[in-house]
Amino acid sequence: MPSAPPPRPAPTRFAVLGTGHWARTTHARALADHPDVEFAGFWGRDAGHAAAAAAEFGAGSWSGDEGLADLLAQVDAVTLALPPDVQADLAVRASDAGVHVLLDKPVATDLATADRVVQALQRNRTASVEFLTYLFMPEITTWLEEMAALAAEHGPWEGGVFRWAGSIDAPGNPYGQSRWRRERGGLWDTGPHALSIVRSLFDDVVAVAAARGPRDAVGATLQHRGGAATTLSLTLTAPEGAGGSFATVWGPGGRHDLPRFHDTAAEGFARAVDRLRTAAATGVPDALDARNGRDAVAVLAAVEAHLQRPDGTTPVRPPQS
Ligand SMILES: NC(=O)c1ccc[n+]([C@@H]2O[C@H](COP(=O)([O-])OP(=O)(O)OC[C@H]3O[C@@H](n4cnc5c(N)ncnc54)[C@H](OP(=O)(O)O)[C@@H]3O)[C@@H](O)[C@H]2O)c1
């Protein structure tokens, strides 16, 4: 039997890569309030944005390529609140510097890039956790445990509907100017949330089909190993009054709705920090590590590939006049 890796000290000195709304209100808030962590400050491509974010917390700021190298030499771990493709490159760079990474969702927006992140983390033996908000909330994890118990007693879940809809065009929404969201749409922004629940309840996704709706909306059907089928409805441009998320699962154990959670995102993020510290200290990968995130990217990339197929949908014959 292989022996367990020797325990290492848990990372204590953390920095945030990114300076936007989420970086400040969730990542930095959680780190600054965490009793076991020292929050070093922010790195951003824009020195002014990094300094302004740092001033809110009385922390340090770094910018540019040299600033990043300097920061990575000083911290044990970084959390990344950046567009996913930017995140992927910087996660590889952090890992190559021996720094553990707390990623945001999705790990990347293509499979080759996600694989590159996973390979770097394995090569460098650096730990990772992907912050999938719902899976760090007690109401949700308790419900998932109840669902697992019902499935064990009555048989596997047979289907489910998973609707995740944001409204980034609503007045005051902090993500209205987010370029990657405009380019990649709800599939890549809200899709990881939906999949975090789907993949907790169902066996692996083996095949997908999908169709486009208005603007960025996507409807997808997922076929799972073992025969279940689930559907996703994803957008981040839902009309006023039509946003929000819900999920329902059914099978021999009945029909059940995903509950709401009540903690703040920063409270959930603090739990992700704890999980990263444990994974780094023990050398045992977290269940929500980059590899798990890579497997979600594989599903999203398959949906995107289906949407791009010229014969992606089967036309319905129009009614006879
Ligand atoms: N779990 C959740 O519910 C949740 C909610 C929100 C966000 N997130 C995640 O957090 C991550 C960041 O999202 P976000 O909304 O903050 O994204 P965003 O608003 O599109 O971008 C965040 C920041 O990234 C910086 N940036 C953009 N391009 C860059 C580049 N090429 N190099 C370096 N920095 C660059 C920008 O900083 P400058 O101002 O310096 O240009 C921007 O403020 C994503 O993974 C997202 O999914 C998760």
TrEMBL record:
Matching Gene3D superfamilies: Dihydrodipicolinate Reductase, domain 2 (3.30.360.10), NAD(P)-binding Rossmann-like Domain (3.40.50.720)
Coiled-coil segments: none
Record InterPro entries: Gfo/Idh/MocA-like_OxRdtase_N, Gfo/Idh/MocA_oxidrdct_glycsds, GFO_IDH_MocA-like_dom, NAD(P)-bd_dom_sf
Short name of one Pfam family: GFO_IDH_MocA
Domain GFO/IDH/MocA-like oxidoreductase: 171-250
Keyword Oxidoreductase (UniProt): yes
Keyword terms: Oxidoreductase
Protein name: Gfo/Idh/MocA family oxidoreductase
